[in-house]
Amino acid sequence: MKESDNIYPIFDRIMTRRDKEELLKQRGVMIWFTGLSGSGKSTVAIALERELHKRGLLCRVLDGDNIRTGINNNLGFSEADRVENIRRIAEVAKLFIDTGIITIAAFISPSAKIRKMAADIIGTDDFLEIFVSTPLEECERRDVKGLYARARRGEISNFTGISAPFEAPEHPALTLDTSKLSVEESVRLLLELVLPKVGRGV
Hints:
The protein is α/β, with parallel strands linked by helices. The chain has eight helices and five strands; from the N terminus they run αβαβααβαβααβα.
């Protein structure tokens, strides 16, 4: 007997995504922020969540701090572990989206391949890629956690932007440079994009 023979799907008996979205009066969607460390991903994501919440919309923010200390606390930063980190995040996000929840992810996710994997798992129709394009020199200037300084000293290997590459998205749904845009301006642009997608006017 194969292991898969012990799995009995119940998808035909549980409440559907449409049922959940009708209850919440919103549509689930994935807002996926990608960019260098220190680019402003988490700051803008959190501000966006607050603005959506004010409008009566149910959201969930996923970022490195609440994922790496929980569901992915057994993963390191090897190439294989980084891929698995994003794969698990995408699978968890899909569960939220299928429940009608607006899900906001803030991860470096440095390669086109890794972001495509996430989009394929979640579903490309539900995936909004937001490129926080803040230049490397500005990210280094902020360096809140001192990570760039350590990477420059060789204390952190495979650090994105220093000793590992970052592939900018070719066709993001929106590009935000937080060295030029304030948090409020960034959120305004995001609301213009997101609100129609989740069934609300701007």
